[in-house]
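agent> step 3/5: call structure_predict on target 'Kynurenine 3-monooxygenase' (Tolypothrix tenuis PCC 7101).
agent> reason: downstream docking stage needs a structural representation; sequence fetched in step 2, passing through unchanged.
tool.input:
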Amino acid sequence: MVNKLAIVGAGPCGLLLAHYLLRRGEQYQIDIYERRNDPRTVPFSKSRTFPIALGNRGIAALQKIPGLMEAVKAMSLATTGSMIHQPNGKTRTITRKEPLFTLDRTNLAIALLNQLVEKYDNSRLNIHFNSQCTQVDFVAKQVTLQRDSAEKFTADYDLLVGTDGANSAVRDHLCTTELFECQKQYYRNEYKSIYIPNPTINLQPGKIHTWRIDDGTNIILLNQPDGSISGVIYFPQHKNQITSLTTTEEVQQFFHQNFPEVAQLMPQSEAEALLKRPISQVITIRCNRYHYDDSVVLMGDAAHAVSPSLGQGCNSALEDVVVFDNLLDEYVDDLAAAIENFSIRRQPDGDALAELSENAFPATKGLFLEFILRQRLSQILHQLFPQRFLPSLFEVLSDTTVPYRKILQSYEGWVSKVKNANNQFYSNL
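tool.output (status=ok):
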């Protein structure tokens, strides 16, 4: 029996799922629907994209497809730690046992797409770009889509997979069904992208560079394979300095006063672009389940979008695919059983990741210094006495595949401490 799958969303999660299912055999026929253009044919703005860092979870997921991780590494930079830049000009370095591979999300999607179309013809796989999901009939198992030309068409499915991001259309339609609950919130920090195409000063390679000031504003910058530098500036939703900037001169003055090292990197053209660039909001998603009946399942940001503070959004989305694939092994390709148990297995991890992402990284200056001290002590003590002392929280998150719920249980004391301090900090802004 051939199972007809409709995957809505051609991001990394949806594309990797197609890889995993098609390699299982002829019983899966897949159509992928993406509302955007084909990223392989349309130039994308590097100044608007968000760099991601693949840790052990994401790497392990990609490695199960032969040749895929090699293609991703070819367009990535390995980072071996973080460099924290202090106001006095000094730096603190946090080293890593295992490297992270940093790259642009769009490039990751392109690598996945290229491998898909090379391996499978249209007898088993069809990819439809410029096709936006507008309606889902869960009883008839039919999805309605609309192309740019306003032409509408329908597609039947045996299984509908929503991998269409934090603003998922599939999830929005699930919200109209009984027993499905979804909590959608805007994260308390907003951000703007930073893109420096031809930096005159080089940052130390192989490091994620961060700066922070006392009002909760943070900058994260990474070197890119093409020699550029990109990243983001985070700031609180309320009472921040960024939204009050109205001229290029004010932007340059703000960086010179608060982030002088970044100001040296930033040409006037990027100061102008940053001023015009819209403020982006981070949406967090918590659902009480990730499936409907035996024919719909949500994965990735559609199911559990989180704050990017820990860099686990894409990694957890790719790990979703591994969990679902393991369930298909366990239940011998019984889709109904795999779908139901995906919610049972994965939803607690999604909630735990949300709690960790929101409350593992301190906003206050005092607790941030404690965070740095904890990182260093954990590395030393765990190496000397591995049975008595835990590794650092960030090492477990990125260097292992320990379930998020178990990580939250192990580091509950720290997470609770940060949560209380952060809530007080933001309430006083």
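agent> step 4/5: record observation. The first strand starts at residue 3 and ends at 8.
agent> proceeding.
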